[in-house]
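Ticket #4471: structure output looks truncated?

Reporter: J.K.
Steps to reproduce: submitted the chain below (353 residues) through the standard prediction queue, then opened the result file.
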Amino acid sequence: MLVILPHTDRTVLQLLAGRYDTTWYVLIAEEGYPATCPVQGELCRYAFFPLYPGMIRTVTALTPLSAQWAAWLIAVAASLAAAWGVYAVVERVAGRRAGLVTVVLWGLVPHAVVESMAYTEALFTAIAAWALYAVLTRRWITAGVLAVLAGLTRPPGAAVAATVVLCALWALWSERRPAGPAGQGPRQVARPVAAVVLAPLGWLFWFGWVGYRAGRWDGYLRVQERWGTSFDGGRFTLHRMTQVFTQQTVLLDSVVIAATITMAVVLLVVCHLQRLPAPLLIHATLIVLITVGCAGYFHSKARFLIPAFVLLIPLAKPLARARPAVVCTLLTGAALISNAYGIYLLTVSDHSP
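Returned output as attached by the reporter:
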């Protein structure tokens, strides 16, 4: 990054916290949501969920930092929390070495550069990872609260909420026994029930609030449509991927995104074949379905898959068993490629990473 900066007219802060979605989050933090956009019309800012701009506004109110600096520092802190959460989840299901390798792979995936940008992917991944850890360790209240926060961070927060709800319901069903010393008492029942009630509240609140502001129940969906986003079951994604693999001239980022989507689907199948724990499978499946099934923003779909870190476990397991020299060689090469591609996305590509 520092090598190419002298050849650009941008500072590090401008590259990492001054363009694309970051601009909208900073505007919301500074000015609020009411606004009209030339293309998207009224309520355009309501496409962006409130937790991140709320955090930015809080930090700027409590410190002398500008909104840009606050946005970037929050994202960096969230990346560290996400890496810790990814390790905690994978260490529990696949061991310490697999956990460490998964964290490294998560930092090297295509579009991993956004993990250092003032975007919401790192924050969302952190919340999702710790919610999954809470489910795995049966901390239902914590899982429910984190699902609320996920639902206030990004649209796929619905996937985190659904994961918590389904797992809590399964826990209630599988452990149904008469209350008493040998059975499931009120305390053990109350916590999964609380998780079921809590988990969807964040996403439902924002969906309902935008609907209220729009004056119609599907107001949030209308706002997203104005931004070019809708759910079409994957027709748009399939069409764009067909173009990538059939046209003679395509952009580098389009090729990488098409390959990433293909690999994600393959790894998802492998995850199911390896019978990873149900919470991880549900989360990864829903993230992939949302990413592939939504129309629009093909150039960002690799970024949308970043929270699906579970997909990296089938790759991390064999690497964890390999000799250290082999692992270091492979990961170093991957790091160089990932860094070069990240620089390309920030300085050459015309699209949001």
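Triage note (M.O.): checked the attachment and the full token line is present. Strands lie at 36-37, 41-42, 230-231, 294-295.
Status: closed, working as intended.
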